[in-house]
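Record type: ASSEMBLY
Status: queued
Input:
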Amino acid sequence: MSTFDNPFDPNRRLTAGGCSCGRHVSEAEHAADPSSSLQPAMLESEDKKFEGVVASAVMRAMFPQDASRRAFLKSVGAATALAAVSQFFPLQTATEAFASSGPLEKKDLKVGFIPITCATPIIMAAPMGFYSKYGLNVEVIKTAGWAVIRDKTINKEYDAAHMLSPMPLAITMGVGSNPIPYTMPAVENINGQAITLAMKHKDKRNPKDWKGFKFAVPFDYSMHNYLLRYYLAEHGLDPDVDVQIRAVPPPEMVANLRADNIDGYLAPDPMNQRAVYDGVGFIHILTKEIWDGHPCCAFAASKEFVTTMPNTYGALLKSIIEATAYAHKPENRKEIAAAIAPANYLNQPAIVLEQILTGTYADGLGNIVKQPNRIDFDPFPWQSFAVWIMTQMKRWGQVKGDVDYKAIAEQVYLATDTAKLMKEAGLTPPTTTSRSFSVMGKSFDGSNPEEYLASFKIKKAS
Amino acid sequence: MTKSLRIRAAMVSLVIFAAFIGTWHLATRGTGAVAQMSPEYAALMGATATQGKSAMPGPLDVGAKLWEHIRQPFYDNGPNDKGLGIQLGYSIARVMIGYLIAVAVAIPLGFLIGMSPLMNKALDPFIQVLKPISPLAWMPLALYTIKDSSLSAIFVIFICSVWPMLLNTAFGVASVRKEWINVARTLEVGNVRRAFTVILPAAAPTILTGMRISIGIAWLVIVAAEMLVGGTGIGYFVWNEWNNLSIVNVIIAILLIGVVGMLLDQILARFTRMVTFPE
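Status: finished
Output:
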């Protein structure tokens, strides 16, 4: 009797001979047939799948004899049987208990986040119930800055945290902190950043005119920093010589732009849209025009958390992956904007978040732009992303000497784990862990990072 | 005469206050529509961009928001959104714990230093080096070693408020009049009894002055500490509203921090008057 077929079907074939589904001569042939590899129940929602498993187990326990179970079902009907069973056996509770893969080592978790739209899946999973679905009681805690989030995760005040996708690599490599094995099982968002300039530069749209500009990025080890440097360098400006790039916390960016202390920034949202909303800046370009589909923020946890609490980690990651899948759908974006706008989460005007998440926005120059994938959500941590990030760390002198790109990427970007959990959540993960992409027309596949690095004219690495 | 002086002073205060509010109001008024915008575009923009409203809120905005906070001081919408009453409560509790630990350490140690010239000389260099360190400099070290953010905040309050109390206690104890101690000695009063019946009452005003300076420092420190460790407290509230670029709420927080600081100072001022005695 297969675990995944309907226990309330009196006409179901028994497994005396042939295969479990009854359509094949032997188990081997059943396994070879692609159409039978996924049971119908598996293709439905996850709840349904577990319901079937639990009900099947209960029926078998009550009527160990196949023949008597059949007789019972035939005489009263499946629906009545289910109702009768449910009366004295709490199927619902049993299903929920079964849905988690094993006993959770810890139920009350703290997850840190920075109040920017990149954290959307981590945040929305709390008010929209994705954590509680897996039996977790997660408190999402707003945190003052990237360095504080790093320290609080390292000292275990947070079980996991929202980080910038280069941070787990930097922490693992011991750049900017002590080396601690870190993992990044999911990307939070792709795209979703922009270059915002002060209103006074609205006629200087060519980056070649930007010599002497002062720019801000949120953190040294961030996609923002690497993308801005890349963009400037492609236009012939040396980011270390021709302009100034400072690390400034996102909320201070808008205030500094207003005060005329900086000329622009490459920052996470809501800061770009907020500058437009407040009338102090305009959106020059979205980062998706630099690299369409680039990762930005990430969901990260220490290796220790992953290994000592595998079930909790699995449940947490599954909730994040499901929230990410939900956030990916354009039709849910308005609802998400409303869910994360209150003071407890992003603390921003809902209209600002809605413009970012739906991609229909005011650009600050009087136009309403429609870019549905201005920000998107895709959890898969491609290892070639990690390799690209490391080439840029080396390009700008953040790391020196030989870098074992492949090994570090595999150790930190847990693509195989993510794929496994995505499958369990009913999603279709990619079959490889690396893929090629192009950044401003230059393609990169991760196989030859040193050669890629050598091809840049403007760089710091010697 | 004194009565009329008080009334006149109150009048002047009121005039200054009214002038301040008036200038503030005039300076932050909106200037009307600033640019031509289509209605759909304007719907996506904020008031600063559409109505030329100053980025600085006016006194009426602050008053209205303050009233909103006062009406609902204890709401709790989850870990990152709590009423101002709760935030102030957390801050005051942290300050009290850190401060009381500082009192428990500083006063006995100050007594020791004040009564023994040897210890005074030996400990002085350490105190002089540790005294001027800013709370923000302690914070990363505390976070890294204590590994708990609320304990770190308490530690920082302790470490910053301990020095004025310690120095004042030592000074007060050391400068108790020699005659009084000699009288006690002639009456063959024991060491412990002498400390409690002669030195403590004589040094009490100085000790309390030190405690008063310390509570002021502790209250200064808490805002900086909470801005960094986050979670709860008035300092976190300021940071959170700064994130939201809500200057209204930042101004309200500044106002409340000032009022609470004043109250704490007044309470200790009253204690100081209670222990002062005519010589």
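Annotation: Chain B is about 80% helix and 0% strand.
Annotation: Chain B touches chain A at residues 34, 37-38, 40-41, 43-46, 48-50, 55, 77-81, 140, 143-144, 147-149, 227-231, 239-246 (CB under 8 Å).
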